[in-house]
Design a protein that fits this description.
The protein is α/β, with parallel strands linked by helices. About 35% of the residues lie in helices and about 20% in strands. The chain is built from seven helices and nine strands; from the N terminus they run αβαβββαββαβββααα. The radius of gyration is 17 Å and the shape is globular. The structure holds zinc ion (2 copies).
Length: about 200
């Protein structure tokens, strides 16, 4: 009985979805080692197949310098969508550069103060549902390697979760929780979806 329960618990950290294929596209200077860690976490958690592409230059057309040098995440998502082969389901871009987006309020206007939110630095972005997402390690670095790797895994699974069709979740333990502009939110969530989010995507 004890063994059965342990086995049951150990199976809770991944989910059974229809097999999908994800292309992982590292951009300029993104480390092979970190790319491989991300590949493994996608395979382990979502049980998807992955294809890792050779590193390509981050497109200059996404570059912007309003406050500091950054790359626009929405522009990167369009670039990634274009290079995604039809035969795969999702493409995930990985970058060391700072990435940004414009934050809007519930009325669709740029969130106030405008100077702050017009070009807002983020950890990652993925449309919901969508086929492309992008992750940046620029804002998540931590001297403790365990914390750093944990952050990058959670952000990857979160953005891919958006692509699969998950919206932000109210459960503060679930990795689909809105980071709410703070890395500490990400440190607090589990490397796991809540039962409700699992239920939603297992139907997709
Ligand atoms: Zn999100
Ligand atoms: Zn959830």
């Amino acid at each position: 009985m004890g063994i059965l329960i342990l086995f049951f618990l150990s199976c809770q950290d991944n989910i059974q979805l229809n097999k999908k294929v994800v292309v992982i596209q590292p951009l300029s200077e993104f480390s092979i080692h970190l790319t491989d860690t991300i590949r493994k976490s996608i395979e382990d958690y979502y049980q998807f197949n992955t294809i890792v592409y050779e590193v390509v230059e981050i497109p200059n057309t996404s570059y912007i310098n309003i406050k500091t040098p950054r790359y626009r995440a929405d522009s990167l998502l369009r670039f990634l969508r274009k290079i995604k082969p039809d035969s795969v389901n999702y493409i995930i871009g990985l970058t060391v550069k700072d990435i940004s987006t414009t934050k809007y309020d519930t009325n669709g206007k740029v969130k106030l103060p405008t100077f702050k939110y017009k070009d807002w630095g983020i950890f990652g972005l993925g449309f919901c549902p969508g086929v492309s997402c992008v992750i940046s390690n620029f804002r998540i670095k931590h001297p403790n390697q365990v914390i750093y790797i944990d952050r990058i895994k959670k952000i990857t699974l979160h953005e891919l979760g958006h692509n699969i069709g998950l919206h932000h979740c109210d459960n503060k333990n679930c990795f689909m929780t809105d980071a709410a502009e703070s890395i500490s939110t990400i440190d607090q969530v589990e490397l796991n979806l809540c039962e409700n989010c699992k239920f939603i995507i297992e139907k997709k």
